[in-house]
Amino acid sequence: MNLRNMIIGLLLIVPFGVMADEVEDQIKQGLQAYQSQDYRAAVEELNYAIAYIQEKLNAQNVELLPKPLKGWTASKTENASGAMSMMGMGSHMSRSYQRGNERIEISITAGSPMVAGALAMINNPMMISSNPDMKPFRYQRIKGIKEVSGNRIEITLTIAGQIMIQLTGSNTEEAVIKQYLDAMNFDAIKKSFLQ
What we know:
By secondary structure, the protein is α+β, with helices and mostly antiparallel strands. The chain folds into 2 domains: 2-58, no CATH class; 65-193, 3-Layer(aba) Sandwich (Protein Transport Mog1p, Chain A), CATH 3.40.1000. The chain is 47% helix and 27% strand. The chain has helices at 2-18, 22-35, 39-61, 81-86, 113-122, 125-129, 174-182, 186-193, and strands spanning 73-74, 78-79, 91-99, 102-110, 134-139, 142-149, 152-159, 163-170. Strands 1, 2, 3, 4, 5, 6, 7 and 8 form an 8-stranded antiparallel sheet that branches. Helix 2 runs antiparallel to helix 3. It is elongated.
């Protein structure tokens, strides 16, 4: 009976051991290299693990951009987060939506110096009033700016001083852009990008 339990136990454990997580393996190899004072190898192993984790995070974050509204189509999400974060520039993702000749692009940028620039403008009414195409804008309790120029409308919002959301529409109405704002989950965006 004891041998039978041991075999069942091994059968349960072996599949999990065989399917060890690649990231965990890289982290373990990085730690071993560090402990052996092979710092270059440690950095390489840990960078690989970081890149793999960033890839998983990027795939998860794709869900933060809304699905197309009824009658609209959407492009694949563009995600420059990995490259930007490696350069210390934060994260950025965008997606385009189209219906006939109407087009809307939604982008989320976090942890980037660009967010500070937008925040400075949003918090300075003098800067906004210096451009006749710009006006203060508020969505729910989120402050932003709206710029209207010809058939182009751009709404920029900042969240917690670290996240910038931009919706740029051409040949469309502000009401449609607000529908896309309504379709966004701002709590999920904060949870994903705030550090």
